[in-house]
TrEMBL record:
<keyword id="KW-0808">Transferase</keyword>
<dbReference type="InterPro" id="IPR041698">
    <property type="entry name" value="Methyltransf_25"/>
</dbReference>
<keyword id="KW-0949">S-adenosyl-L-methionine</keyword>
<dbReference type="InterPro" id="IPR029063">
    <property type="entry name" value="SAM-dependent_MTases_sf"/>
</dbReference>
<dbReference type="Pfam" id="PF13649">
    <property type="entry name" value="Methyltransf_25"/>
</dbReference>
<keyword id="KW-0489">Methyltransferase</keyword>
<dbReference type="GO" id="GO:0008757">
    <property type="term" value="F:S-adenosylmethionine-dependent methyltransferase activity"/>
</dbReference>
<feature type="domain" description="Methyltransferase">
    <location>
        <begin position="87"/>
        <end position="180"/>
    </location>
</feature>
<dbReference type="GO" id="GO:0032259">
    <property type="term" value="P:methylation"/>
</dbReference>
<protein>
    <recommendedName>
        <fullName>Methyltransferase domain-containing protein</fullName>
    </recommendedName>
</protein>
Amino acid sequence: MSGHALLNSVDGLYGQFVHVSAALANCLDQAAISALGYDAIAPAWLRYRVQGTPDLTTYVEAGRLSRASIAASLNLIGRRLGEFPRILDFGCGCGRTLRWMRDLTREATVWGVDIDAEAIDWCRGHIGPARFEVTNPVPPLPFPDNSFDLIYALSVFTHLDYPGQIAWLTELRRVLAPGGIVLLTFLGYTPEKYAARPHGAPLRLFNERIMASASLDIWSFLEPAEVEQLDRDGFVFLPYRDSPRDAPYGVAYHRPEHVHDAFGKILPLVSYVPDGFCDYLDAALFQKPG
């Protein structure tokens, strides 16, 4: 089976399975949530949408590690997470990361935006005093110029086609205040990383401690011609079967050089760390001049 067929087949079959089992998982989760003292835990079907599995531990630990990785990425450029008065979680989903940011709202204004109206509605009812807005799949955002000092987009640009990435980074620049920081994550590709991977290695989500139930190799979706395209152009995008034409959605791979050359023209790149986000995604920090 080709990489494209595998990607679409697994996405469809696994999605059907999870939608059937999500309601049961949600009922079973209630005991664990109460026993562990968790709060603001999204229901199983919303967790599946943001992480490909309804697994409770993955949701909790991924959010915790995401906050830690944001802080660590900022520390590399001498900044602290607590120093930003206006923060935007771009593509917040059902608040997997934002639920770990609630302490910041004592000193900062924190916003979350997403195209998933159901997820945003849930966040509004459970993750206060952060603020939330539903957005469209294409720009603009419902904010004036220079609205935020820190914007992070976690596993968002890993799913957009190239025109969508350029459009959204340009829009993030618009709403970013002078001197502000944008943190993006990427599926970073290098020939060395691709060649060194064990054949059939599992898709590693965040790190070995919080393996999700999926056991796919994210690199196996690439056909030889697409690996050549990555080597040549630095970018390749594989759309999902049901991806909308006006705002394609799928899996995007980048070479670090491509991020520097293409995105650095929109916002200056100040830090790029391979596997620097949760030991899995590449972490890139951009800063708006001023």
